[in-house]
Amino acid sequence: MRKTVVIAAIVGFIFAAHTRLYASESTVDIDALKEQIKKELRAERPWQDEIASWKIDIHGFASQGFLCSDKYNFLAPNSDGGSFSYNEIGINFGKDLTDKLRIGVQFLARDLGDIYNDEPEIDWAYGDYHWQDWLGIRAGILKVPLGLYNETRDVDMLRTSVLLPGGVYHEPYREFMMGLIGVGVYGAIPLGPIGGMDYTVEAGTINLADDGGIAKQYEDDVRQIGMGPFMLSDFEISDFDFEEMYVGSLVWRSPWGLRLGGTFNRASFTTNGRDENYLAGGVSSGYACNVEMDTTEIRNYTLSAEYTWEDLVLAAEYWNNTFWTKSTFDFTVAPPPVPIVSVQQSTKRMIEGYYFSASYRFTQWFELGSYYSVYYPFGSQSQAEGLNNPTIPGNKDYTKDWTLSTRFDFNEYWAFKVEGHRMNGTAYPLFRENDSFPDKRWWLLAAKITFSF
Amino acid sequence: MKSKAVLGVILAAIMEVLLYFPGIASAGDVIIIANKDVSASSISAADLENIFLAKKTEWDNGQKIDFVTLQDCQTHDDFLTKYLKKTSAQFQRYFRSLVFTGKGKAPRAFQTEQSLVDYVAGAAGAIGYVSAGTNTSSVKVLTVN
CA A247 → CA A140, A207, A292, A424, B29, distances in Å? Predict the structure, then answer.
């Protein structure tokens, strides 16, 4: 009996409460309530509304990678034990000042092994006057077209693989192809039933860091090429002085999913460096050597093809980099007042590479890709005219990279990628990060998780 | 009996796989709509592609083009496949590549076809697409040559 009363009381209470709630709901002006809530939200979000009123587009990305190789350190000094020193964070702001004039800036921070160290830099920042579709002008810090993917190489979300094929997008040379301070014209020319043509022409200069990726690669090149009996095995770059760069790009977009493109750039720069204790006949000399390298001309060109059919994307690109350098080596051979022995050397060097790639998006969340990439740091025929490089191991003048990549999209903002590289040849890893290169075959695992908005 | 069951499972698996592949599902008709102040009454397929890839930004009379899209849905997929030869993912990456190089911005994307029609009806120079059968009395329907 007592139990029945308790249950009846509870039921009655719930009924009464529900009735009261219903009654109160029915008397509220819903529209007024919504307005009130909006007002209160606005009151609590003044800065968000203020930013929204500026009509500034804000986008960004952040990625964290992992590199692990089985024999050699590559990209990160300790990648043979697994390294997380591999990330990118970027944020950009853009605003249309008029229908034809847009300004924008992107800040980028990266980490790759022992370089960059997440120090923020301006990735691009320019004003863009879009006069006509076939002619626009940009001025500021510009992206540099090289091949089909150089301009977006830092945006992991846009591709299947973690690392772009090194045969064309060799990571240490990235700084050569980014952040051109100058001016450019661009346009899209419609070609009616056969698609359209996009072009870009740019001129300017680049600020190269003396402790970045390109410096590491150059130091390694000088250390390994030698000069007669002399080796500058501790060579360090102290200064890069980039003079000018001219860039041209032409891409034909067919209406059948095919893109064909070519890019060309020409530049010149000087480099200064020093080895505190050069080797002579394989023995420490105890003296220093100052080096001045005047790269009077460097020519880069790429040829590209990409074909898209539904979820299948096929691509192939070829890259050729030829440069002419006049170097002066001032060898200290004895204590002062013995004069310094100065040696001049003129060299022409060619770097070549190419790749074939395929990727297929099976579902909304899964994509599979593969590429075969070949990189020749001294040309496919090792045609380094004027170079004396007997110390280079036979497998150091090429790398052939078979890669299998998987990509998982959790949603439109998040993606995870993991890939395996089967390497043949040791042109990628640097002397400074490896003691020797006894084996030509090695593996690299790369993984990355990316967020973008 | 057992073999029929196995056959049934295999067929079901094949159907499941096929459903993942775009293009196998039948594509519905998509119509192109524009604001009534747009002077053109027809548009070429090439111009349509250039507009939705941000390569053509002005109508022939110099009026600025405001192109808008639908968020992921069958009509969006049908439009991209038919006129841009791209999948939804490729289209999204294309505009992200513009956004992250400073070369452009992503178009407005609407959740419903009716909200897209309403926007196009009120925005000068606007162009978009909806599925056939959508009420388009407030906008102009463009024929594609």
Answer: 15, 16, 26, 33, 44
What are the chain A neighbours of B49 within 8 Å (beta carbons)?
A: 255
Cα B131-B136-B137 angle, rounded to 5 deg: 165
CB A446 within 8 A of CB A67: yes
The structural domain count of chain B equals: 1
Question: How many helical (H) and strand (E) elements, i.e. helices and strands, does chain B have?
Answer: 5, 6
Cβ within 8 Å of B, A 136-155: 143, 151-152, 155
**A8 CB-near residues (< 8 Å, 6+ apart):** none
Instruction: Decide if B62 touches A, using CB distance below 8 A.
Output: no
What residues does A209 pair with on adjacent strands?
Answer: none
What are the domain boundaries of chain A? 1-54, 59-452
The rounded mean pLDDT for chain A is 87
ipTM for this prediction? 0.82
Nearest CB to B101 within list A143, A195, A308: A143
Superfamily (CATH) of domain A59-452: Porin (2.40.160.10)
* pLDDT bracket for residue A391 (50, 70, 90): low
Max Cα–Cα distance, chain B, nearest Å: 70
Confidence at A40, pLDDT banded by 50, 70, 90? low
Q: Which residues of B touch A157 (CB under 8 A)?
A: 93, 96
Give the distance, in angstroms, between the CA of residue B32 and the centroid of all CA atoms in the same chain.
9
Tell me which residue of A65, A89, A94, A250 sits closest to A164, measured CA to CA.
A65
Provide the whole-model pTM. Answer: 0.83
Residue A145 dihedral angles phi and psi, to the nearest 5°: -75, 130
* CATH number of the domain where residue B85 is located: 3.40.190.10
